[in-house]
Write a structure and sequence with these properties.
single chain, mainly alpha, Serine Threonine Protein Phosphatase 5, Tetratricopeptide repeat, 3 domains, two-stranded antiparallel sheet
Length: 538
């Protein structure tokens, strides 16, 4: 596979969007890019941009449909659990042919050039991408993938075996980052995530290990694995001891977008789908909105933008609560298909860089926001939620879990305020007041304290994580399948006669159908997506 050279790293996102549109069998068994065609300095930003696109919160990524499955948004591409073998072609192809192949070439070139920092980053990125793919598809091509003609029909490896290998891959990445004989290190224009900061990549590696151990905690005893990661010194990148996991918002693992609406277009792809596109891509799920409303959550105007300026009932609304206008999941009501392009509530500033809701309403356009918000992968607040879950369920320390939980909820507000502060002063986006944050955290801790046992406390932790992780759908989908929390409804409980759930909840995504037909080592038929669980599933 060849990839066109690019002159600006941020343009890679939109170049790569077009490289996987055709439906042909080249996704997992093509030779990596010719080493002389693209220099290592361009391979890194290209890999990161495509990773963000195909895992991210947009129509082209996995984040948006998985967010719909767990009732944060309503997206008719997903529908009421009616998923097929052609629904995720672009994501499957994009992750293999753009993200992983370019990353593999970076790993190969880095090894040949003794550029060990590039190699270490490539190994950590590879582990992250494959872990996300296992989380949604289970068994996938891994050990024989990306090896070209050597394995023209790569086998589908066992999902648990892949996870086991990923831990070693992460350790290899950390070891390469610690090497002092690297021929060169990436600059800030080449590493668009951490600017070549090895300390942050090592903390990310340990955070990723902590995350993966947490996800498999129901399959094995991980207590001896997680304690060193929680307790290790966070700022150490040399010597024998492991660097700790993420320590603050500056360690957030995320891909940053820009403001350009021209050539290249480098705003958040989710913003393009909901604001810049002539037709809106998503609605907000009423369950998600009412969950925040019931908690008096001050993040609501940052999460959602109400185009409708009035509270007068609309005859075209399938669901309306004052200025909030949407459609219910699986709605078959008389207004389920009504045109609400200019009245529906949209995703707001925090998830996709849309508009902050100041109460004035107004029809949204591509000029209504900047679309510069980063695509979040693993944040500091998510790391603290992970710690809270592990302290409670693995280390059996509810008091330590409470402390981590408090830190997590507080950090989630800090992140929203950081997004707000990045907006220009003319946009009129205020910070959430400290008093409001304190009141919310106090109420969340009261819910934790009132929970009668550890299982009930886990429900409180996971519900707050579900709210905070808006925009990282794969992890929310994974958390729900692992724990069952929050207990999201899959039909409108107030008016069941006007909603329908087509099929059972999917516990995995279907494979790309063309791979099943053309790869002799692929499964002969689609797995039953409602019963055949990922190995870590509860």
């Amino acid at each position: 596979m060849k990839i066109t050279k690019i002159s600006a790293a941020v343009a890679a996102t939109f170049l790569l969007l077009s490289t996987t549109g055709c439906d042909k069998f080249l996704d997992v068994n093509t030779d990596p890019i010719n080493p002389t065609s693209v220099p290592i300095t361009l391979l890194m930003p290209t890999t990161q941009a495509s990773m963000s696109l195909y895992l991210g919160h947009s129509v082209g990524g996995l984040g948006q449909p998985t967010s719909a499955l767990v009732q944060q948004i309503v997206n008719f591409r997903v529908g009421a659990f009616s998923l097929g073998g052609n629904d995720f072609n672009n994501q499957w192809l994009g992750l293999y042919t753009s993200a992983l192949e370019n990353n593999e070439q970076m790993l190969m070139q880095g090894t040949e050039q003794n550029a060990w920092t590039f190699v270490g980053i490539a190994q950590i990125q590879k582990a992250y991408i494959f872990s996300q793919m296992v989380d949604v598809w289970g068994d996938i091509p891994y050990s024989e993938a990306l090896k070209g003609v050597q394995f023209p029909a790569p086998k589908f490896d066992d999902d648990e075996a892949i996870y086991n290998d990923l831990f070693g891959l992460i350790d290899q990445g950390v070891a390469n980052l610690r090497r002092t004989d690297s021929s060169r290190n990436p600059s800030a224009t080449e590493d668009l995530i951490y600017g070549g900061d090895k300390a942050k990549w090592i903390r990310l590696a340990n955070t990723l290990k902590l995350k993966l151990y947490n996800q498999i905690r129901l399959t094995r005893d991980v207590s001896s694995n997680v304690r060193p990661l929680i307790d290790a010194p966070a700022d150490q990148i040399g010597g024998a001891a492991a660097a700790g996991a993420a320590t603050n918002v500056a360690d957030d693992f995320e891909f940053k977008y820009g403001t350009s609406a021209g050539n290249p277009e480098n705003r958040h792809p989710g913003f393009q789908g909901d604001y810049a596109a002539s037709s809106r891509e998503n609605n907000i799920n009423p369950y998600f909105y009412n969950l925040l409303k019931g908690n008096n959550d001050p993040r609501i105007p940052y999460y959602f933008f109400n185009q409708y300026a009035s509270t007068t009932p609309l005859t075209t609304a399938d669901y309306q609560d004052g200025r909030f206008v949407t459609v219910r999941f699986g709605s078959i009501g008389p207004q389920a298909s009504a045109n609400t392009t200019n009245t529906r509530t949209l995703q707001g500033l925090y998830p996709i860089g849309g508009r902050y809701d100041n109460g004035a309403g107004g029809t949204a356009t591509g000029a209504s926001g900047r679309g510069v918000v980063a695509q979040r992968f693993i944040t500091f607040f998510a790391r603290k939620f992970i710690e809270a879950e592990l302290q409670l369920t693995v280390l059996n320390n509810p008091a330590a879990a409470r402390t981590a939980f408090s830190d997590a909820v507080t950090a989630s507000f800090t992140k929203v305020n950081a997004v707000a502060a990045a907006e220009p002063s003319t946009a009129g986006v205020p910070a959430i007041p400290a008093a409001s944050i304190t009141a919310y955290v106090t109420a969340a801790l009261a819910r934790y304290d009132a929970a009668s046992n550890n299982e009930a406390k886990l429900a409180v932790i996971m519900t707050e994580k579900y709210i905070a992780n808006y925009g990282t759908g794969v992890d929310v989908y994974t958390d729900y399948r692992r724990t069952g929390y929050p207990a999201v409804p899959f039909a409108d409980t107030d008016n069941d006669s006007q909603t329908t759930q087509t099929g059972a909840f999917p516990v995995r995504l279907p494979y790309r159908q063309n791979d099943l037909l053309t790869n002799i080592n692929a499964p002969k038929v689609q797995p039953n997506i409602t019963t055949e669980k990922i190995f870590w599933d509860r």
